[in-house]
Amino acid sequence: MLRIRFELHPDPDASAEVEALLIDEIRRRLRKALDLVYCQRHGDFPTITARGRVGDRFDFHVTGCCHEFVRQVKWRIDEL
Ligand SMILES: [Zn+2]
User: pTM value?
Assistant: First the structure.
Protein backbone atom coordinates (compact mmCIF):
# COMPACT_ATOMS: atom_id res chain seq x y z
CA MET A 1 0.00 0.00 0.00
CA LEU A 2 1.14 3.50 -0.88
CA ARG A 3 2.37 5.46 2.15
CA ILE A 4 1.91 9.22 2.25
CA ARG A 5 3.41 11.47 4.92
CA PHE A 6 2.97 15.20 5.37
CA GLU A 7 5.41 17.75 6.70
CA LEU A 8 3.48 21.00 6.76
CA HIS A 9 5.26 24.22 7.59
CA PRO A 10 3.19 26.07 10.16
CA ASP A 11 1.28 28.96 8.68
CA PRO A 12 -0.46 31.29 11.15
CA ASP A 13 -2.84 32.49 8.40
CA ALA A 14 -4.10 29.00 7.55
CA SER A 15 -6.89 27.48 9.60
CA ALA A 16 -6.85 23.83 10.62
CA GLU A 17 -9.85 23.25 8.33
CA VAL A 18 -8.02 24.63 5.30
CA GLU A 19 -4.95 22.54 6.09
CA ALA A 20 -7.11 19.41 6.46
CA LEU A 21 -8.81 20.08 3.11
CA LEU A 22 -5.49 20.59 1.38
CA ILE A 23 -4.07 17.38 2.85
CA ASP A 24 -7.17 15.46 1.72
CA GLU A 25 -6.86 16.88 -1.79
CA ILE A 26 -3.17 16.05 -2.12
CA ARG A 27 -3.71 12.57 -0.70
CA ARG A 28 -6.54 11.98 -3.18
CA ARG A 29 -4.43 13.09 -6.15
CA LEU A 30 -1.43 11.01 -5.10
CA ARG A 31 -3.59 7.93 -4.53
CA LYS A 32 -5.25 8.35 -7.91
CA ALA A 33 -1.89 8.59 -9.65
CA LEU A 34 -0.03 5.95 -7.65
CA ASP A 35 -2.36 3.59 -5.85
CA LEU A 36 -1.66 0.54 -7.99
CA VAL A 37 1.96 1.40 -8.71
CA TYR A 38 4.49 -0.95 -7.19
CA CYS A 39 8.00 -2.06 -8.06
CA GLN A 40 7.86 -4.83 -10.69
CA ARG A 41 11.13 -6.24 -9.39
CA HIS A 42 10.69 -6.07 -5.61
CA GLY A 43 6.90 -5.83 -5.14
CA ASP A 44 7.26 -2.78 -2.86
CA PHE A 45 5.12 0.34 -2.74
CA PRO A 46 6.60 3.83 -2.48
CA THR A 47 6.54 6.30 0.39
CA ILE A 48 5.79 9.90 -0.53
CA THR A 49 6.61 12.76 1.81
CA ALA A 50 4.76 15.95 0.90
CA ARG A 51 6.51 19.05 2.23
CA GLY A 52 5.20 22.55 1.98
CA ARG A 53 2.81 25.12 3.27
CA VAL A 54 -0.80 26.05 2.57
CA GLY A 55 -1.11 28.28 -0.49
CA ASP A 56 2.30 27.28 -1.80
CA ARG A 57 3.66 24.58 -4.04
CA PHE A 58 4.38 21.28 -2.34
CA ASP A 59 7.54 19.24 -2.80
CA PHE A 60 7.12 15.52 -3.09
CA HIS A 61 9.99 13.45 -1.77
CA VAL A 62 9.88 9.84 -2.95
CA THR A 63 11.52 6.87 -1.26
CA GLY A 64 11.31 3.27 -2.39
CA CYS A 65 13.09 -0.06 -2.66
CA CYS A 66 15.35 0.87 -5.58
CA HIS A 67 16.54 3.79 -7.69
CA GLU A 68 14.70 2.66 -10.82
CA PHE A 69 11.34 2.49 -9.06
CA VAL A 70 11.81 5.86 -7.35
CA ARG A 71 12.52 7.33 -10.78
CA GLN A 72 9.27 5.88 -12.20
CA VAL A 73 7.24 7.24 -9.29
CA LYS A 74 8.79 10.72 -9.60
CA TRP A 75 7.94 10.70 -13.27
CA ARG A 76 4.26 10.00 -12.48
CA ILE A 77 4.16 12.69 -9.80
CA ASP A 78 5.55 15.24 -12.25
CA GLU A 79 2.47 14.61 -14.40
CA LEU A 80 0.04 15.45 -11.59
ZN1 LIG B 1 12.49 -2.08 -6.44
Answer: 0.87
